[in-house]
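Why does residue order matter? Because the sequence determines the fold. Keep that principle in mind as you read this record.
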Amino acid sequence: MYGMKFLRAPALGIAFGSIAFAPVAVALLAATPARSEALILIDADSGKVLRAENATYPWYPASTTKLMTLYMTLSAVRDHRISFDTVFTVSKNANAQAPTKMGFPVGTQVTVDNALKMMMVKSANDMAVLLAEGVGGSIDDFAEQMTDTAHRLGMSQTTYVNPNGLPADDQVTSARDLAMLARALIREFPEYSFYWHIPAIKFGRRIVRNYNPLLGRYPGADGMKTGFICASGFNLVATAQRYNKRLIAVVLGAPSGAVRAMKAAEMLEGGFNQNPLAWLMPSLGTVDALTPMDTAPLNLKDQMCGKHRKRPAAEDGDADADSDNTQAAGDASQQRSVLLSALRAPTNPVLLSDLGPVMPIVVYTGPTRTSAQLATLQAEVAAEPAKKKAKHKTAAATPAHTKAVAAKPADDKPATAKPAGAKPAAGKPAAKKPGAGKETQVKPTDGNAASAGPWSLLSSLGIAASPPPELGTSSAPAAK
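Structure:
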């Protein structure tokens, strides 16, 4: 629509001989994306751009902002200003953040390690503020530090005003800048990569899966972060590794979580399976060499959250995304040039497998627990599905007459209290209590058994616990 609108302007300028109008119209055409979507695919090692569409168009980052909050926190650990065992306290400001959040009461203490896990998996806005206040002193100071760090990394189009990505007009980035941030995380903090590929967390009885739809579904996927606000649409920074090659895909402005996931999977698949004729395509250079576009970010609020949607779009409601928008995005994605389609590798329509069971990582409040306590917690999580399954089988095997005895009538009285002319009890239907005599259905918790073995970066215990002292993180002084 935008392209059609501005294509008329240059034609009018030429037809009426308007020398001044045509250049302005051409500039507007160049500054307006043909469709509401920005994409980029790069090689994480070399920074080479494999695909780019509107990659330098300014965009609202939404919760992909938390990647910079993660970067800032890991930098503070690396510089020995804090440790993963450092305890921060939930403030009124953190508690007041809009969902999605953990919702801990003011005064609750959370370690840096647990706060990072909750922020990256559940996208908890309150945990992002907790870390910002703990590391930077205040949201404003931390946001200023975030912006300075972004510019140091070459993210010249990025400005931050908060640590979680909640709506703010001045909080802006681009697909190019987010790819650069993801690359910086991979290169500078490889030993802490588990923070961006934890499949699920368990807090008490609550289990929350990672919002990243590629984890566990796309072969080789290992991070990083999703995001959504009405103004941005559905965003995703995704990383995957195959054949000793790691790729970073960024999708901004997708109409739903499903489209966002499929688009990223298609881009990654094309990067891993390059067509032999790909060398004929013009080189796009490296990610840091792309020219930023100086224009205002596109606001998708009406498109994403307008009255036309069947249900309000939300980050944690991907399954309820508007199917009409999904189809429209699918149609738009097919409108590519014949040449580029021929040069790119064919796309496998079945890229995302069914989401299977996962082993959630236990998170908790309060100070860091001992290895024995963590092993116990993790063992309980592993054993819980088996216990529930056994309970379910026991309930199903209960004899029918036993259930009938257990379900006594609500007006059950001794036989001596009945009138002489009363009908036999057998001929009168029993007035059961609500739910009495019914079999209890227990829904198994996602997960499978796993033993608490020795600590390693990718073991379940290693992910659940803070890294061991030999990584040099536990000797740092606690932040005040």
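DSSP finds 15 helices and ten strands in the chain.
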